[in-house]
Amino acid sequence: MLRKHARMRKEYLAAKSEDKKRAFIHDRKTQLKEALDNKQPIPQHLRKFAREDKTRLELDDDETAVAKTHIDDEYALAGIEDPKVLITTAHAPSQKLTTFAKEMRLVVPNSQRMNRGSTGVPEIIEQARSAKFTDVVFVHEQRGEPSEIVISHLPLGPTVHIGIHGTVLRHDIEGCGPMSQQLPHLAFENFTTPLGIRLKSVLQNLFPVPRKDSTRLISFDNHSGYVSFRQHTFNKTGKQVDLTEIGPRFEMRPYLIKLGTADMKEAEIEWQLSPYTNTAKRQKVL
Q1: CA-based Rg of the chain, rounded to a whole angstrom?
Q2: What pTM value is reported for the model?
Q3: Which of 124, 136, 139 has the alpha carbon at shortest distance from 93?
Q4: From its phi and psi, is residue 250 left (phi > 0), alpha (psi between -120 and 50) or beta?
Q5: Torsion of Cα atoms, 175 then 87 then 143 then 94, to 10°
Q6: What is the pLDDT of residues 20-58, one digit of tens each?
Q7: Is residue 79's pLDDT more than 80?
Q8: Residue 86, Cα to own-chain centre: how many angstroms?
């Protein structure tokens, strides 16, 4: 790792370590503001810091009043600059995986596909950083079937590992329409938990902001931790909307999020799917 990237990584980890402190201060300010607005006595546990917290409240504006975390720094340029995505495969990919990677290049606007060859992950990440890519997407297979998508955000992470199954390529979808070149609208269903919001942020920032008149739609529909990926074009006539699937389609299940890029083996694990994650009744992780 270059010294510049090592320094950036160190600064990022330092900012992450401040998250709990910032959240604690924000919680104190919120409680103090409620007490002052309602003309109630200041709670005993807030009195020690009441003077400095009141000063912070007076200095707050629309930008500083909202609590921020290291996640805000990861996607600081989201919506300002269009993402630039590099897509590649595992070593010696099968024909189906190669076709799947080509279709993913069509799915993600402003993306490029690279033949992997014998290039290692650290070399790919370094080349992508040098070429100003914002994300690298690796697609892997098992027994000739696409089995995993790894999304690594640059320059510092995070990296999300997502298992996939039930892949149906475009030429296998009956009545599949032509691939649209418009920037897609995104629809996320049931991404309400902290983990769901985190995954939504990672997926959302692979795509540029579309035009309002775009007729292309990509949907991510979450049901009990399994996310269905579908892509359609639509034609609206009065109150009637006609959908045409343009593929591909597959099911996704995230199982690992690491606070680093794909080449950082020592990166901290933010979340990992465990065998008993969803066994508790009414427990909703994603």
Answers
A1: 22
A2: 0.79
A3: 139
A4: beta
A5: 80
A6: 777 777 788 888 888 888 888 888 887 887 888 778 777
A7: no
A8: 15
